[in-house]
Amino acid sequence: MSTESAETEHEQEYESRVGAMHAFSRLLEDTSAKISLVAITIISAMALFAFVDAKLLDYQLAEMFLYHPLRAESGARPLLPPVGLSNQFGDGVLAHPLGTDTRGRDIAVRILYGSRIAIQIALVSTTIGVAVGTAVGAVSGYYGGWIDDVLMRFVEILYSIPFLVLVIAFMAAFGRNLTYAMIGVSIISVPIFARLIRSEVLSIREETYVEAAQAAGVKDRNILLRHVIPNSFAPVVVQTTLQMGTNILIVAGLSFLGFGAQPPTPSWGQMLSIARNYMLPAPWFSVWPGLAILVTVMAFNILGDGLRDILDPRLND
Amino acid sequence: MSHLRYSVKRLLQAIPVLLGITSITFFLINAMPGSPVEVMLGPTATEEMITEASARYGFDQPLYVRYYKYILAVLGGDLGQSIHYGVPVTEKILERLPVTILLLVSSFTFAISVAIPLGIVSARRRNQPIDHGSRVVSLIGVSTPNFWIGLLLIIVFGYHLQVLPSNGLVMPFTPISEVGGADSRLDVLVETGRSLIMPTIALGTLQMAAISRIERSSMLEVLGRDYISLARAFGVKESVITRKHAFRNAQLPVVTIIGLQLTSALGGAVLTETVFNINGMGRLIIQAIRTQDYALIMGTTLFFGFMFVVGTLLTDLTYAYLDPRVTYEGEQ
Amino acid sequence: MTTPLLSVENLRTQFDTAEGTVRAVDGISFDVHEGETVGLVGESGAGKSVAISSILRLVESPGEIVGGEIRFRGEPIVSFEEGPNGESRPSSEMLSNKEMRERIRGREIATIFQDPMESLNPVFTVGGQLQEFIEINRELPPKDARDVAIETLREVDIPKPEDRFDDYPHEFSGGMRQRVLIAMAMACQPSLILADEPTTALDVTVEGQVLNLVSKLQEEYGTSFVWVTHDLAVVADICDRVNVMYLGQIAEQAGVHDLFDDTKHPYTQALLNSVPRPDKTVDSLEPIKGVMPEAINPPSGCRFHPRCPEAREVCREINPDPRNVSTAGAVHNAACVKHDVFDVDYANSAPIQTDDDEFGEDLQVTEGSR
Predict the structure, then answer these.
(1) CB distance A5–C293 less than 8 Å?
(2) CB pair distance less than 8 Å for B234 and C137
(3) What is the pTM of this model?
């Protein structure tokens, strides 16, 4: 009967909080979100495979099934165009589907292994950004007062130097390798989440159920953990997804400039910087790594948009 | 409060931020390999120079004194000496600054003049083909690395079609004799324009895409507001509603986003200048890193921060101009 | 019987949403005559605001008027005809969009909205907005329009209107903003004003002032009103006749006195029982059980029957339209089968077992709960 099916406001709120599964199933109804989810899964699988093979197996899998990403085969021909142009390298139809680079290394394999750098740095830095940013923002928003002033001032200052420049300066001071790249990008990811959480906390703090919990003597830490943070879940999820995309772009830029994974480890940005020197003889060289970046970032952006439509319909068009 | 009072207030608020940025660069300088002396003056510094600099920067003194002296130096415009170029850092920066500013102004002009009409049309013709098309374009725009766009543009227009220059930026005031094939000031300006096209598109695409998205969603949101329905109920024409009633309100979040885009644009300038071999500040920082010219690196970083603060100040003032509530609430 | 100023006949307006079709207005009919104030009463979600938008033909997508006739001074604002395949389509004799915009909206029919903060454009001055509407609808040059604007602001008791002309909406209090909205509506000298809950957002004393102002203006200019509200006290104060809406349909229509003294529909009665009345002393207020369901999936038969204390089995099957159940001369329509005029053997039908719903006895009064 209709009366029984009508929900009160409270019931609806409860359902949406517990409704992670509900949100997920609604996400699957959106075609583009589905596609992006598939794309991200595939790319992540590639990255994982590359990570395992590179770090743990010393590229044995690559040598067995593909080509070695760091070393060219003996007798390899450099700067081969992709299949479809004049590729007469033996070994069947798809010998080098995307061509080879200056050293004769297969580009397709290098792109595959390049995904590892992109995903690794983005994942680590976004995670740290969310974790630290949440802590800072939650404390800042909840307690207010001078803590808030100091923390937010610091966040604002961090925010005021353009991302790329700050990371570059940071890496110039400390070191230019992968590790410092991760640290640097993590640092610049913190302010965004700190601000986001803080504004969520500020609005939730005024809700009556928080007052009730305080009146009942629940410890601040527990209030934060059990009431405040879970309710700010939605925009954080959206921002995390979008931030993954942003960070991949930043990492690509860093690699392009020579900061980040050092050669011979392949990364997309770095491959583009090499391609830059060969624009005339091998223009296709510039296409594939950029395309890889585009597809990956786009997948995260589509997913983020889809999540935003579901979790925060107020922002929906 | 008047706009003037608000401007002053915002300016004062910017000071601690500038101080903070300076502190960060100070911290980074001291974290760099080598002693601060080497960092600021380079390995070729003479005894004289070192002694003189010690007094100014306080190298042999405790940290807090060095900090204080550093701040003073910065306030005085002294950012150290560029090892590689042999000139004061400030001088080098000021030499390169106009180039980057030209590039930034150009790309933002491009971005805004395309994005705003695109976003409005998209909102008015929601869910029609043009809306879908522009949304796809925007999505691609925010997902593409700008240096890749630059590379592709150079390949197509620079190398294969050979219609646009892909190396460097011709500034409007360059002496005519230094510009190949130019016989008049007009020729120089044409060259400026030609050399600006590709870098502008490369740098501005991300901005354009981001701004058009927010313009669209902001217009849609505003068009759904009660005062718009009221205007319709009183017989106001739809075109007037879009142009007058909705537009100004919709710009508020857009202005905010433009402010945020500044930070990515400044970073993007580094990449774009590298791809196009443009001698602006972005390229300067990269060249400085290659030559390990630490004072130059830090000075440039500091300057980027300052530029951002100035940019945000301008956007905040624009916002206050558009929204009468802002200055009013300041008085509450 | 004179031609009514506004006549609404069997209006149906729907919204196509992902979850289904929301039949927000599902066949309502009422008239407004010159000089009278007709109330449109109901809980939130009953379809009152949609009805108002429909009269001005400003229903926004995904909403659509799908049936009925609305005539203003005999001219068709909404009208449907049969197409070549027998389907129903908007009639060609309907006023065009341009005519609606130029002649009707703001000029013949004006509106007063509910939330004055949201209804005024925050980036323009109050005077400027008022002046613009006057320029458009009374076709006056800017200078004359400005004078009229200032005069109208004076008429709605805004002090120092010449000075306040250049102020922004956020510089006015809630009550003053509402007066500005009234000024906008009146300045264009319309014959009919549609007022959509104009006093709901105001506190009681301010509301009283605004209602007095409206009465005064109505006396002076003879404007007709359609007054939407969920507050029965306001109805008692200013309405001549009342339409009670429930879930997109009209439950009861009567003169205001008849509605209060001789209530013919259980829903109206329940509404009256759930609020305190100065003319009656009761032991306790009785809230209406349950909440009004969504218009996507209305109950079968009479839409009120799940919550009706007088429901019988036959109520599950029949959805009555309002019929005249008046014993005296005046028209008094009620859509309830318990009246003989419906002839469905209500008396012998078994009462519906009302299971004690899970909400229990202490239910909040459902007014404006959404």
Answers:
(1) yes
(2) yes
(3) 0.81
